[in-house]
Design a protein that fits this description.
Layout lengths: L3 E6 L10 H4 L6 E2 L2 E2 H10 L9 E5 L3 H8 L4 E4 L5 H7 L2 H4 L3 E6 L2 E4 L4 H4 L7 E7 L11 E9 L1 H5 L7 H11 L3 E5 L3 E4 L3 H12 L4 E2 L4 E2 L3 E6 L4 E2 L2 E7 L4 E2 L4 E7 L3
Parallel strand pairs: 1-4, 1-6, 4-5, 8-10, 12-14, 13-15, 14-16, 15-17, 16-18
Antiparallel strand pairs: 2-3, 6-9, 7-11, 8-9
Helix pairs in contact: 4-8
Length: about 260
C-alpha cells in the first residue's frame, strides 16, 4: 500500500523490565541476540516498509542510545518524556500526513508468523488489532484475544489523537464500541517482553531446544538452553539463561532462569 506508513513505539521507560532498562532502553534489549527494535524493523521490511520516509520510531527514555542505534534507518521522534502510545503517534502527525499507520510496540516478540494478515482485505476504514489467544487471567481482551503488539490505524483516527494518552483509550475501545474494530489472529508465537519473565521466555523461544551463542562469545562452561551475546565470557554454567553482549559469568557461577547483563 503506497499510502501506508509505520511507527515503532520505543519511548517507554520500561519500568516493568527493570533493572535491565536502567542499562538499555527496552527497544534495544536483545532477544536471541537481536535488539527488539531491529526485530520490529525486520517485520516491517517484510511488508516493504523501510527507510525514514515510511518508517518512524519514537524515543524518550535513554533516547540517545536509540538515536545512535537507529541512525538513518527511521524517522526518529524524540519526546521530552514518554507521552503514551497515542501521544507518541500524535506527535508524528505531520510526518504521517494523511496516511494509514501500522503501529507496533518495540517490546513485542513475534516469530513464525507474518504481519501481512493485518493488511489482507483491509477496507481502509476499520481499526485492526493483531491478536493472540487470551490465556486465563489476561486483562484487557478484545473478542477473546489479547493484543499482540501491532495495530492498523486509518488516518481518520490518527488525525484526532490526543497529545498524551494510550491507544487503548483513544482508539481501540471507542472503535470497538462503534463496531469498527477487527481482531486479526496472529498464527505464530507472540510474547510481551515487558517483564523479566516474558523477556526470558522470548529469548528461550529464540534459542529453541538448544543454545544460541554469538560467534564472538567465549564459552567454557556448560550451557543448557542459553542465549549468549557477542563478546560475552561464560566460564560458569547456564540453564535457561541469557547473557548480554560483553557480560561475564565467572567460574563456579551457576545461573538458572536468569539474565546476566554486566560483569
Amino acid at each position: 500500500m503506497s499510502d501506508l506508513c509505520a511507527v515503532v513505539l520505543a519511548a517507554g521507560e520500561g519500568t516493568r523490565l527493570r533493572p535491565l532498562t536502567l542499562v538499555r532502553p527496552k527497544a534495544l534489549c536483545p532477544v536471541g541476540n537481536v535488539p527488539l527494535l531491529d526485530r520490529a524493523l525486520a517485520h516491517l521490511a517484510d511488508l516493504d516498509l523501510t527507510g525514514p520516509a515510511t518508517v518512524a520510531a519514537n524515543a524518550a527514555w535513554l533516547a540517545d542510545q536509540v538515536r545512535v542505534h537507529a541512525r538513518d534507518r527511521v524517522h526518529l521522534s524524540v519526546e521530552p518524556r514518554p507521552l503514551g502510545t497515542a501521544g507518541g503517534v500524535a506527535r508524528l502527525r505531520e510526518w504521517i500526513s494523511g496516511r494509514a499507520v501500522l503501529v507496533g510496540n518495540a517490546d513485542a516478540y513475534l516469530a513464525g508468523g507474518s504481519l501481512a494478515a493485518l493488511l489482507a482485505g483491509w477496507d481502509g476504514a476499520t481499526v485492526r488489532l493483531l491478536g493472540a489467544p487470551a490465556t486465563p487471567g489476561t486483562v484487557g481482551t478484545f473478542s477473546g484475544y489479547g493484543f499482540a503488539g501491532f495495530s492498523l490505524l486509518p488516518w481518520r483516527w490518527v488525525r484526532d489523537l490526543p497529545a498524551e494518552g494510550e491507544l487503548v483509550h483513544a482508539v481501540w475501545r471507542p472503535a470497538e464500541a462503534a463496531g469498527r474494530l477487527e481482531v486479526v489472529p496472529f498464527t505464530g508465537y507472540f510474547r510481551d517482553t515487558g517483564t523479566p519473565a516474558g523477556y526470558l521466555a522470548a529469548n528461550l523461544h529464540a534459542a529453541g531446544s538448544g543454545n544460541l551463542i554469538a560467534p564472538g562469545a567465549t564459552v567454557t562452561g556448560r550451557c543448557q538452553r542459553a542465549v549468549v551475546g557477542e563478546g560475552a565470557r561464560v566460564h560458569g554454567d547456564l540453564t535457561r539463561a541469557v547473557v548480554w553482549p560483553g557480560a561475564q559469568v565467572r567460574p563456579g557461577e551457576r545461573l538458572t532462569d536468569a539474565v546476566r547483563i554486566g560483569p
